[in-house]
Amino acid sequence: MKNLYIQCIVFLAVLSIFSCKEDKKENEKTPGPANTSVIKKAGDANLNISFLLDLSDRIDPKKYPNKSMEFYERDVAYIKSVSEAFDTHMRNKKVREMNDQIQVFFDPEPQNNNVNAISRNLKFLINRQNASLELLDEIKNTYASKPLEIYDLAINDNNFIGSDTWRFFKDKVKDYSIEEDHRNILVIFTDGYIYHENTKMKEGNKTSYITPQVIRNYGLNTKAWQEKMDKNEYGYIPATTNLHNLEVLVLGINPDPKNPYEKEVIMKYWTDWFEAMEVGRYEIKTADLPSDLDKIIKTFILK
Asked: How far is CA 196 from CA 193, 231, 300, in A?
């Protein structure tokens, strides 16, 4: 009787072990619901890349000269880095899987028809019907030369239209920069200050704009800037929400050197804004030399 009891105990123990293993296997086979907000890796998704160019006086080499490298030249080099990453992505895809695009936007539109014509020539859609090495070469060469023409025209016109970045997010970003079943990447060029004369709104202490003067008026130029900013809820007014399927890369932040905390204030303004608008992924970079940012830009695109 004692032996029978021991055999039963051993049998139940073995059964329990096998049962646990089966449960583990079953759990491995049937994971929980997929997180649909997770952005696919570049190699697994179609890319939809948009540039939002800022042709304000920030690019004027006379008003804001830079001995190391002019700011408009940095923009052009950043664009080239993005386009090279796009090219790498395309050349590693199977033709039957291609459904990718790259394009340039302004807000507002430039008054120079030549600038608008060039921007139209920078819009490419590549799919299985038109994909070819010749087309990829054309895209690469176009993005290596045409953006400089845009900046040259804007500088020579000396009529800087600015960039209404806040309004672009409110009225256009979902229609222009987001496609279903794509990895949507918006590359924004800005010195960090959002301002346009046609979009000046204020809700409490949140605004649709920020300038060095506003930062000084708010007293955000001391070491207590963050405490003051949080207490008074300074920041950008959210322009929209539900941008989970959008990645944003901000390039060119150029804080006023007179305020040692200016960079941190600008970064917080943008970070809080993107969080409020539920942007899926973002990075904000200062106007460093293109050689320093090239790897960072390409890693963001190809991740």
From this structure: 10, 27, 29
